[in-house]
Structures are given as C-alpha cells and as structure tokens.
Amino acid sequence: MDALYPPLQQEVDRLFRRKGFSAPLWHSELFAGTDHSEQAWAARLATPLRFLLAEPTKEHN
Fold first, then answer.
1. How far apart are CA 10 and CA 37, in angstroms?
2. What does the pLDDT read at residue 7?
3. 3/16 Cα distance (integer angstroms)
4. DSSP 8-state secondary structure symbol assigned to residue 34
5. What CA–CA distance (Å, rounded) separates 42 from 30?
6. CB 16 within 8 Å of CB 8
7. If both were cysteines, with which of 14, 20, 34, 57 could 40 make a disulfide (CB 3.0 to 4.6 Å apart)?
8. What's the rounded Cα separation, in Å, for the pair 7 and 2?
9. Maximum C-alpha span of the chain
C-alpha cells in the first residue's frame, strides 16, 4: 500500500503549489525507506508536531 502514496502525494504537492501554499504554511516530506506503521510514525512523530505546533511568523498571523 505504501507504494501508492508517492504519486498521490506529488499530486497534492502540485495542487498546494497551484493554490499558492508554500513554507512556512505547508511542507511535504518523504521518509524514504520507512513504512506507514505505528513504529515508523513513532520514530518521526516530532517532525509533524514541530510543524503543527510552531509559532506563526509575523507575516502569517
């Protein structure tokens, strides 16, 4: 099932760019060599949490 994600994520990336989203409001990251298991998510959970809980920048308040 993980093999299905890359082309779909690429389409989402294109859509977000077309809609004008960019850093720091949006970020897409590939964790090559990992799967979508709870163990893999636990190992990288800090990455999305830092993004989601970051203080907004002055220009994006």
1. 21
2. 92
3. 21
4. -
5. 15
6. no
7. 34
8. 11
9. 40
What number of residues does the chain have?
61
Query: pLDDT digit string (tens) for 5-58?
Result: 889 999 999 999 999 998 788 888 888 888 889 999 999 999 999 988 988 776
Buried b (16+ CB within 10 A) or exposed e, 31-59: eeeeeeeeeeeeeeeeeeeeeeeeeeeee
For the chain, where are the alpha helices, taking DSSP H only? 5-18, 38-44, 46-53
pLDDT score for 59: 61
Locate 15 and state its tokens: 């859509």
* Residue 38, CB-side half-sphere exposure with 13 Å CA sphere: 0
Cα angle for residues 40, 50, 30 (degrees, 5° grid): 45
